[in-house]
From TrEMBL:
Source organism of this protein record: Roseivirga ehrenbergii (strain DSM 102268 / JCM 13514 / KCTC 12282 / NCIMB 14502 / KMM 6017)
Signal peptide residues on this chain, from the entry's feature table: 1-22
Top-level division of the source organism's lineage: Bacteria
Keyword Signal: yes
Protein name: DUF4440 domain-containing protein
InterPro entries reported for this sequence: FrzH/put_lumazine-bd (IPR039437), NTF2-like_dom_sf (IPR032710)
Keyword entries, A-Z: Signal
Amino acid sequence: MKKGHYLLVIICLLGFSSFAFIHDEVKNKAEEEAIKDLILKSYVHGAFNELDAEAMKKGFHEDFAIYSAKGESISKYPIAVWADGVAKRKANNYDAKDPKNKWEHKFASVGVTGGAAQVKIELFNQGKQVYTDYLSLLKFESGWRIVAKVYNQH
């Protein structure tokens, strides 16, 4: 009789732990999809395809910067300067139908751990890979925001 109770307890524990694992996986996938959606709206379309500075401001944290190596120093390009440049470019006869202004993307990886995420995204223009970007995100009370970028230009 005791063996039956132990077996029932083990089966229940296995069931609960499987349910918790599946729940975490579903939650993680939902977070990944929210992050991808944010990157598409604010980054791929905001900064490249549609030149939508307002979409950029919604998806990027105000302290965001692009970091790149300059000799042995780090160059920092803040979001305010970048978004202003995007708005000016759009105002200067931007043609969304021009193939040079059409950017394709591929999410190479999306990693989420709690309230932190890292996304590797590849950007292509006219069939050629131009950038590999690493975007860092944090989850705030208001949702996910892009907080930093490092990249490689091919």
